[in-house]
Amino acid sequence: MNQHTIHIVNNCITRIKAGDNYSAVEELYAVICNRVRFIALRYTKNDYDADDLVQDFWQNISNYCSKYRDGNGYFFLCKILSNNCIDWLKQKGKETSIISLEDIDHYESLSCEDATDRQLDMDELHRKATEKMTERERIVYAYIIYEGLSIRNTSRELGVSKSEVARLRKNALKKVEITMKEMNWDKNDL
Length: 190
Fold this sequence. Notes:
The protein is mainly alpha-helical. Helix content is 74%, strand content 0%. Helix 7 (117-132) packs across helix 10 (162-182) and helix 8 (135-146) crosses helix 10.
């Protein structure tokens, strides 16, 4: 998640806190809908339960935003959703698992009904780039890009060293850059 997008998310959260429960929520949804769905699918492993968790998340978005204080709003919301998913797993007597390639493939096949041309182009870029990545690069990329985890937290999730995660992240991002060049994108387009 780049700084510009984090700024948009933070702005939306601030507007929602101020009572703008329509246009700000709509804008926030357009920016993070796929990532929210991906997180829910990562935990539930099925569309039905993921839909329930995502619906609950969006129904309570005003309440969540009212608790936001400062920092990375995207990470804040993802953490709330992750905690909701973990609570759901505990209620069902299930355990969490690391992200799988099937999770990533399923996420990449999703699209928001209201996606803009820009979002569709970004989805295409990510799809083409991940096709070039190794399995481990894709998993690290998914944790860092889709879930917003740090290198340290990704390292903990996967049980590998931070230097290994950093190396895999660097390789994955290099493949994104190569794909950008192939698609005639400039780094400033992100």
